[in-house]
Amino acid sequence: MSANVNTSLPLEYQTEQSRMNILGFWIFLGAEIVLFATLFSVYGVLYKNYAGGPTHQDIFMMKEVMIQTVLLLTSSFTMGVAIWEMRRNNKKGLIGWFILTLLLGAGFLFMEINEFIHYVHEGATMQTSAFLSSLFVLLGTHGAHVTFGIFWATMVIIQIAKRGLTPVTARKTFIIGLYWHFLDVVWIFIFTFVYLKGMVL
Amino acid sequence: MEKSTERFPLAHVFGFVMSLVLTFVAAWVALEMNLSFTIVMWIIGTLAVIQAGLQLFMFMHMTEGEDGKVNIINIAFMVFCAIVIVVGSIWVLTSGHAAH
Lengths: 201, 100
Fold this sequence. Notes:
The complex is a heterodimer. Chain A has six helices and no strands. Chain A has helices spanning 16-46, 56-59, 62-87, 91-121, 130-163, 167-200. The longest helix of chain A is centred in the C-terminal third of the chain and has 34 residues, at 130-163. The relative contact order of chain A is 0.18. By secondary structure, chain B is mostly helical. Chain B has helices spanning 10-31, 37-59, 68-95.
């Protein structure tokens, strides 16, 4: 680990190991793009197969969707600021913005779970139609990623608090930052090609 | 990629404001304007791609570091795969036997 240390770079890039980890995570994100592409394609094929059940306009609540979108967009921004604070070597700032990010993420998740409960009360379950099966799988996979991200980030925050900013904790923080921004990118496409598209059908 | 020395995360605030603007413009075009389905989809699809690019370059710093070029090639290839999967699936499965 001590080999190839370049202290002119930001903390998370200083060791060879960290640079390899970050590159490896980008390759993982490439695979995640393809994973979500398969779910989008299933939805794109089946989105009109209502099987007599509710349609998009029957169940979508655009006001709530807009709030979810703003929550997630803001959390992506606060995550960016957290990384920016990390590069100023400001541990307190990093942790503060990081926790704010997770609170926004939790708010998003809370609203999404409420949305699912609302759908089920409307008689729109996963078993109702092919449209709803593909919708729940796409939204649920994204929501599961957010949930996992919150647990993961919590552990990273604990580690920063305990060990301070080191090349290792900085690299871990940077990587979860990439993951978090990626989830926002996926949400942009869900917002556009699921919700907005559903409303203009 | 540099250690930040500026006092204010200007690029991040700019990216955030831009993404909010793009989101609300897309919502307005889709929900408030009476355009045809095809035109709406082209407009909001373009806005989504711009916004995704904003995240990748402004927040994720995709091009920075010694592996910046590798990152770009990797993501570009995966985006190509994603387009093939999505467009190809929809094309085959809606114009094949389902249409006849």
